[in-house]
């Protein structure tokens, strides 16, 4: 199973997706705990790239080890050494090879052995013949034994309903030859799958109680624009902090959010007045950079910016409409001078964009009296 372990390699300029799992490699009599990399093109890296057939040979030879000897020496590469005492492993070469084959199918978006089994079960439930049941049973047994209990994704029932279904009334449970399936137990399993089918059919239309998870609007990027005057018909350029939209805060008026931010950042009142009077937001930044910063500014600047942005969009309803028109889009804010405020091609923290999204979420609440 891939899970969150996503990696890739590049071959001839092509990105080959992959994943990895832990494994032991026996080299020179020592068992090394390492990572086994599996790629979509069927190559496996077990200290060298090999084909699936070559990987099987390494399994059979014990180079990739699935059994661990009592008293064997083990290493975790610069982390530590130890000796096995009564080791236990549920893997066999056959099981590990089957799991790797499943992983390659999954990396390619193909049904793995679990997917093929569930498809066979769907065929059986649609036409309940013994031939179809036998096919479903064979598909179940083709799932690596180590992952069968994950087949239904049900951590309470595990794969029990599946085993009962493929055994049938009076049949023997796979892996439990002494247990015979009763009619009542079989009927419960059928009901389980029928309910599961209903749930799967409804799932695409099911909306979470708190609304949709995914955004409906594409991401918005606010590029550098250096506006010199207010636009007659404001567009996304008006969302820039240096856009000339005056704001009033605590009795003082500033030509833009940028002016206010940089003025409030400096400790000296005279320097602050010069920043406020600067011809543009860029010049306000340049003047502030030459003046001493307020004590603790790095710990308060985010809260100050949030307050300034709230003031801008509360005091300029036309600009609030521009912000609201971005829907629930992710806002990416360019700021070549700051990796803190700007997204900067994914390398910055994008705090301006994040705060714009916060203020945007507050605007509708304020309009209906909930903020």
């Amino acid at each position: 199973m891939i899970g969150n372990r996503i990696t890739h390699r590049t071959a001839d300029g092509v990105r080959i997706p992959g994943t990895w799992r832990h494994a032991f490699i026996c080299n020179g009599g020592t068992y090394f705990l390492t990572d086994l990399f599996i790629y979509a093109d069927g190559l496996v890296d077990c200290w060298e790239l090999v084909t699936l057939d070559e990987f099987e040979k390494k399994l059979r030879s014990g180079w990739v080890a699935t059994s661990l000897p009592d008293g064997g020496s083990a290493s975790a590469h610069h982390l530590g050494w130890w000796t096995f005492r009564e080791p236990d492993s549920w893997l066999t070469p056959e099981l590990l090879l089957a799991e790797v084959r499943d992983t390659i199918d999954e990396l390619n978006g193909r049904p793995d052995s679990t997917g093929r089994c569930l498809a066979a079960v769907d065929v059986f439930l649609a036409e309940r013949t013994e031939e179809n049941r036998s096919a479903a049973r064979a598909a179940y047994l083709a799932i690596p034994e180590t992952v069968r209990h994950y087949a239904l994704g049900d951590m309470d029932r595990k794969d029990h309903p599946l085993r009962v279904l493929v055994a049938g009334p009076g049949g023997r449970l796979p892996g439990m030859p002494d247990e015979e399936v009763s009619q009542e137990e079989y009927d419960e399993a059928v009901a389980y799958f029928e309910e599961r089918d209903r749930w799967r059919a409804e799932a695409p239309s099911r909306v979470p109680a708190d609304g949709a998870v995914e955004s409906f609007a594409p991401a918005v990027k606010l590029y550098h624009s250096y506006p010199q005057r207010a636009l007659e018909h404001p567009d996304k350029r008006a969302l820039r902090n240096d856009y000339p939209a005056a704001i009033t805060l605590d009795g003082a008026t500033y030509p833009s959010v940028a002016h206010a931010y940089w003025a409030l950042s400096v400790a000296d009142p005279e320097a602050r007045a010069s920043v406020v009077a600067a011809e543009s937001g860029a010049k306000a930044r340049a003047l502030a950079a030459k003046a001493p910063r307020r004590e603790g500014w790095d710990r308060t600047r985010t809260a100050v910016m949030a307050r300034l942005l709230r003031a801008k969009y509360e005091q300029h309803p036309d600009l609030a409409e521009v912000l609201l028109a971005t829907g629930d889009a992710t806002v990416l804010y360019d700021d070549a001078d700051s990796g803190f405020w700007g997204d900067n091609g994914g390398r910055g923290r994008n705090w301006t964009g994040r705060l714009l999204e916060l203020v945007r979420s507050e605007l509708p609440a304020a309009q209906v009296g909930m903020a």
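The longest helix spans residues 183-202. The first strand starts at residue 7 and ends at 11.
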